[in-house]
Amino acid sequence: MINTSDIARRHFLKSGLGLAIGFAWAPELFSQSAVDALPGSLNTNRMLDSWLHIQPDGKVIVFAGKVEFGQGITTALMQIVADELEIEMSRIVMIPTTTGISPNEGVTSGSQSIEYGGLALRYAAADAREILLERAALQMGIAAADLRINNGEITAPTGRNTSYWALANRELFQKQVSTKTAFKKSHTTIGQPIRRVDIPAKVSGGTAYVQDIKMPGMLHARVIRPPAPRAAILKLDAGQVEKMPGVVAVIQNGSFVAVVAQREEQAIQAREVLKKNISWKLAEDLPPSLSSWFRGMKQKSSTDTVIGVKQGSSRARSKVLSAQFTKPFIAHASIGPSCAVALMKDDALTVWTHSQGMYPLRTDLVKTLGLPPEKIICIHKEGSGMYGQSGADDVALDAMLIAKALPNQPIRVQWMRDDEFKWEPYGSAMIVNIDAALDRDGNIVDWKHELWSNTHSTRPGEPTGDNLLASWYLETPFRPSPVKNIPQPAGGSDRNAIPLYVFPNQKVVNHLLEEMPVRVSALRTLGAYANVFAIESMMDDLAKSANQDPAQFRIKHLQDSRAVDVITQVSKMAAWDKTPMSYKKGGKLYGRGLAFAKYKNLSVYVACIADVMVDPKTGKISVTDLYASADGGLAINPDGFKNQIEGGLVQTTSWTLYESVPFNQAGIEVSSWSEYPVLRFADVPNVYVEIIHRENEKSLGVGEGSQGPGCAAIANAVANALGQRIFDLPLTPERVKAALASKT
Amino acid sequence: MALKLSVNGQVISVDVDPETPLLYVLRNDAAINSAKYGCGLGQCGACAVLLDGEVVLSCSYPVGSVKGNISTLESYESDVTLNALNKAFIAEQAVQCGYCISGMMIRAKQILEKNRHPSVTQIKEGLQGHLCRCGTHTRIIKAIQRAGKEMSA
Questions:
Q1: Which of A302, A405, A479, B62 could serve as A511's disulfide partner, Cβ 3.0–4.6 Å?
Q2: Mean pLDDT computed over B101-128
Q3: Chain A contacts of B134, Cβ < 8 Å?
Q4: Dist. CA A397–CA A520, nearest whole Å
Q5: Which of B46, B102, B125 is facing A205, going by the closest CB pair?
C-alpha cells in the first residue's frame, strides 16, 4: 500500500512548489479520549512538525488546515507565526491546504479560524522558538534567557551567533506541541494592520482563483442538472450533441449528466443543446410557497431541545408581549459560480477546489467514488467568496466524476449562474416566537424563545450519508446524512437563541425539522441572524413598553461589562443621546435603531446603530448610516477585523432589505440576478466601525459578528420610522406599505 | 473562423465561432485572468474590459464584433490610471474575496479618466452595474477616490 503522505507529496512536488517536505504522522489514535484535550486545532493535530518546518535556506514552512476565501485568514496566521517565532513574515511559506499533507482542521467556518487554527499555530510557533533557543543555548553553553533572536538569527552577549536555519533538523520537531510555553508578551506583527498577502494578485490579474487554473490539455465541462430537485432522467439523446464541434464526451451516470469539450464556449453550447434532448420525471414535491412552508412548519416532525432554562423569580408580571418573527431561505449567491479542476492520473484523483474543508470533502468523495482516501487528493485553491456552504464541494465531485471517466486529462468544471442559484444549499428559513414579560419596574422577568428551523449544516464529512449533490442522482444513489444540529454552546439553528441578557426566568426551545424539501446548509451566522433579529426586536418593543431608552434598557439587563462597553461606544459614535429616534421631513420618515449581540455568546461583541429613511409612497427603505463598535479581544489584524465587520454590515443590509429565495412546487424560481436582486452601490450605506482593543484578552472570531446586530438595528430603525414593526424578513416595500396601512 | 484580436497591445489569432463571448477568448486564448465569469448575462460586471477605452461586458460581447483594442487589468503596469488604482486598492485593502474587483477597477478607470475627483454619489452611479457580495463597497469607493487624488498629486 502506498503511504498517503508519499502520494500527496509526489503530487505536491509536481505542482511546482518543489519543497522538501515530510513529517511524522500524528497517529489518529490521538483523537481518542485516552489522551488529554489540547487547545484549538492542536487537539486533532498534535505533532509540531505537522504545523511547522524550518528549512536550511531560511524559510519557515507553515501548514494550516484553515483556508482563505477573502477573509484574510492566511495573513493573520502568518502574523501569528512571525510574531511568536520572532521572524519577518517574508520568511514564511504557506502551503495550500492539501489532504495528506496539511493538518486536518475540518471545515473553515463559524468564525473559528483564529480561535482554533490560529491558537494551534501560536502554540506551535512558541514551542518551536523555545526548542531552537534551548538548542542554541546547549551548543553555546550559556543560558537560553541570555540569547537574543532577530529574524531567526540567534546571538549571545559574547557576540557568538547561530540561527534557526543552522539549528533546525527534522527530528527536532517530531514531538507533540508543548502548550506549556508562554506566548510572547510584547508583539511585533500581532496587532498590526499588516496588508493582506492575497490582495496583490487579485488587483493585478494574477492567478488568484481556482477559476484561473490553466493546465496543458485541459478540457472544459458543464453539468446538465435536472430542472428541479429530485427529478430523474426519463430519456437522454446524446446524438446531436456528440456531433457538435469540440465535444469530447457526454457523460451520464443515472441522472447525473455532463458534457466535455475542447473549448469552454463549446461546452456551454453543448449544455444548451443537451438540455433540450433530455426528458425528466419531475418530483414536484417542493412546498408551493414560502408562506405555505411557514404555515406548516410547526406541525412538522421535529427534534425538540430545551436549553437555557432558568427559574429564579416569582415576581409579578405587569405587561406581557408576544411576537412571531420569520426569516426566509437566503442564498449565498457568490459572485463567481463554483468551479473545480480535477485530474485522474496513476490511479489517483486530484482536485483543486475552493471547498472550505479539504478533509471533510475527501470523506464524501471517498464514499461516492469508491476509492481509498490515499487515492483522493484535495488541494485548496481560493474561489469567489462563499459565506458558508456554496456549490464548492458539489462541483469538486462533478469534476472528479468526469475526470475518473476521462483519465490523464485535466477537467475544469465551471458551474453556470443558474447552477449556482438553483443548486447551492440555502440558509434555512426560520420562525421564532418570543413571549416576554415586564415587572412593574420595567424589568424583564420572563422570557421564552421558541424556534422552528431546518438544520444549518449539511456539509460533507459526516460518518454516515453523502452530502455531495451529484451523489444523490447517480445510478446507485447515495443518501444525505441524517439531520443534526450543532450543539450548544455554539449552536446551529439555536445559535444565539439564549440571550446574553440576564433574565430571572427563561426558556429556549429548539424545534429542528427533519423534512428538508429545499436544500439547506451553513450560511454565515447560521441561526444567529434570525435569533438576534427576534431577540433585539423584542428588546426594543419591551423598552418602549417600559418607556425606557433602548440602550439603557439593554445595559441594565447585562452583566458582561464588555457588552456594555460596545453599546456605550457605539452610542457615542452615533451621538445616540442627542439624536431623535424618529422624525418626519420632506414627506420622508426617518428612524434609528440599536442592537447588540455577542456572536455565539462566545465570540466577538458587536453593537450597531442604524439610521434609515423610508419613502411612505413607494415603501422603499434606504439605510443611510450604520455604526458599529466591536470587541474581538486581542485583534491579530485590526484592519482585517474592521474589513470583516464592515463587510458583514453591508451584506446584512442586503439580506435584510431584499433577499428571499423564490420557489414553487415545481422548482426553484431563480436563475439569475434578476430573480434574486441584491444590494447595489446606490443603496450602500455609510459605514462607521470602531474597534475596542483588548491586548490581554484572547482573540475571538470576528467574521460573522455584525450580521445579526446589523439586521436588528435596521429592523428597529424601520420600526421607529414607521411607528409600526415589521416582523417578517426581508423588509420589502410591500411590507412597509402594509405596516403603514395597518397603523390605527 | 480565424480572428485577430489586439489584447493589451499584443495581437493574437484565434480560430473560433465569432459568436463566442469575448470573455472565453480572453481567458482561454489570451492568458487573461482579470476578466471573470460571473453571470454570463451582463448583470454583475465581473467580466468588464475596455474596448478602445470604453467598458464592455465581455461575457455577452461576441468576439466577432470586436473592432478595436482590448485592454484589461493585466496592463496595469503600463497604464497610469490602472497603476494608481492597483496601488490605491492595496492601500485601502479594498478587497475581500476580490472576485468582482477586476471589473470594478476597469469601470473605475473609465470614471477617473472623465473626472479625477468623483464624489461618492458619482462613483456609486458609475458602479451601479457591478455587484459585490462581500460588502466591500465602501472601501472600493475610498480606493477609487484615493487613486484619483494620487493621480492629481
A1: A302
A2: 98
A3: 70, 385, 647, 651
A4: 18
A5: B102
